Amino acid sequence: MRQLKIYTSLWAMQPHDQTGVKLPYDQVCEMVSGAGFDGMAIDLGASDVAVVHAVRPHMEANGLTPLIVAFPKTIESLEDTLHMAADFGAPFVDVIGQVMPIALDDMVPVIETWMGMSDRIGVPIQFETHRNCITNDLYTTLQLLDRIPDMRICADLSHYVVDREFWFPLSDHDLGLMSRILQRSDSFQGRVASRQQIQLQLDFPQNQKWVELFKGWWREGLADWRARNASGDCVFVCELGPPEYAMTGPDGAEMSNRWEEAQVIKGWVQEIWDDLGGDG
User: Fold this and answer.
1) What SUPFAM superfamilies does this protein map onto (predicted)?
2) Which residues form the domain of 7?
């Protein structure tokens, strides 16, 4: 059976709205579970290992599955994270690799070494499309995918929309490049970007063309995942980051409520999944 599993992010919940209040972990987990999320991504770029262990019992008490997001600064350092993810029962580790050779030929062995480490330890890895990491550039990532057929992606397309500064409407050529990413993606992240902004407010009228673009990509990605997978869990992470990802006004307050928006995205994605045929 195929199932859609929708997560949010601990990073996105601290603070959880424009008040700037950071909630205790037990309250965060109760909110996330109560809103119907299946799990929560724990970002080791925004938190340390101590935080991961501190939040764990609250996630377990609320039936939330952890997803580990790793930012390995050396090739070797990913190994400890993989062992931790195995202990926590994470479905995979989302790798935002901070080992960033300039030349493609030097990138390939880095990716292949991490993949070999994943196979040896028995914890799957996916490489997130993200700025300031080894998958920073869309064109280079596409070349990596050509060179490494088993390399799998966690698609956060917001980074490439900003990185490439795509004009709207996107050309057929550019849409085709993004489709190539989606065809190698085993999970997805939810945030709407424009060519200049990494995170847009979902209900502002001027942002609707970008909202519809991303909803179309999520539909395409989920449909392609279903065509490739007769069973298993498809993970979608609603990841709406705090300032300075979230835009603020002159008073420093956020211009929208990210907790409410995360639940809006959750509803959109569930609707898309159900429209594609639901579970099974």
Assistant:
1) Xylose isomerase-like (SSF51658)
2) 2-275
